[in-house]
Amino acid sequence: MKPIAVLGAGIAGLTAAFDLRRRGLPVIVFEAGKTVGGMASSFQDAEGFTYDFGAHFVSNRLAQAMGAAEICRTVGHYGEAVWLGGKSYGYPFGLLRSPHFAASALAARLRSHPADNAADWFRQTYGEALAQEVAIPIAEAWSGARAEELSPSVGEKMRAGILKTLYLKAASSLTGRAVCNGYSHEMPESAGVYHVYPGGGISRLLEPTLRRVSDIVQLESPVEAILVENERVTGVRVKGQDIVVSAAISTAPVNVLPRLIKGSDTLSPMAEFRYRPMIFVNLRFTGRNLLPDTMLWVPDRSQAFFRLTEAPFSMPWLAPEGKTQITFDIGCQVGDEFWTMPEDKLAAICLDGICRIFPNLRQKYLGFGGTLKTPVAYPVYMAKYEEQRRRFARATGIDGLYSVGRNGEFGHLLMEDVYWRTLRRMRDVASYVGAPAASEHESALPQGLTPALG
Ligand SMILES: Cc1cc2nc3c(=O)[nH]c(=O)nc-3n(C[C@H](O)[C@H](O)[C@H](O)COP(=O)(O)OP(=O)(O)OC[C@H]3O[C@@H](n4cnc5c(N)ncnc54)[C@H](O)[C@@H]3O)c2cc1C
Fold it and tell me: What does pTM read for this prediction?
């Protein structure tokens, strides 16, 4: 049988390769970079700090499914807060306790109608005050677009019922574990699904999977073209060489597919899909738990950053004792003033910004912990291509071409959902290439895990 080509060795590509191989299908994984992991990458330095590309929180259910449970430590606490008008509000209940926000949210509920865009959706769901002062500025900072231009589905992704949140927060307090809330939309969240972190960094989560497919992963081998004839994938081009394949599974950003595909213009409209570039700046301080909670949202648009994360708040082992690291998320455009700014200047802007919020942090500042940049951090759901996005979510429109993973699905997917969705999509791939049904294999799929983990 002709091999199946997988583009990318992040969690989606490795999961796809592992699953297809278990089904007895021939697979080759082409990874453009020098290492596997993609966004699930971790770094350690001589000073004893461990940090990820972004900050990563995963569930015990994912760790178990990926065979990494025994290297994971349980996370005892995770929480979010919002900094507003010189005060910190716990999210979501601290905000809802404020009569100003609660009254406007109630009034909005009484006069809701279908939303045309994200701004409308926020106003109708949270009320004018919370929408205007919190949700809209944050959505605009991470997307780089006006909330009126964004599809209402931006908001729907963020919705978590109040009762569910109450239950999960109570479960967290009772069990002393950071129970996941909003980390999976594919599988139920309950008191038995909580955050864990693999010793040595998030990238270690992928190790058991990688061990089983490392012989079929080719590093520094970007797929240069996906060859299509009569709307059917026939091959891929790697390092100038055409390789005949039975199917191609892409985890690359969807807006590069039109450039990669030779022989069809079915996906040309995807070229206008946008991702938000992001810079993550790490600053180090003496002390611990310097933020009000693990994550602090900053809707103040006069700040360069919209979110601060103190990962050691939840995972104390990520920094040496008595020290901590705060990650600043800066939304930007490739080539703009932030993208091209020297690192020391970015660090200075972040330090000045956080000291406007917490002036005492200046004396505690230890130094700069590096920056990470990506041109494709967040898919941006613009209203103008919402219909195309929904169509693409069902199928690529080209036989034998599958697009999976966070950037491949153009979805705000966290790793657990990347994992479950990729496994599900591999059943389609197997049936496309005519593989026999794998009944023994199916029992290892997600549904089997649910009852055991509650
Ligand atoms: C700031 C931030 C914070 C996050 N926090 C969390 C969190 O707390 N918890 C959580 O679960 N998830 C989190 N996520 C999401 C998580 O990181 C992603 O869902 C996941 O890592 C995506 O994996 P992937 O395999 O889909 O894509 P990627 O990791 O992007 O992998 C794609 C791979 O494809 C390769 N590639 C691209 N083009 C080609 C080509 N033409 N040929 C060959 N190779 C190619 C790339 O080099 C890359 O290695 C976060 C993401 C961000 C940006």
Answer: 0.93
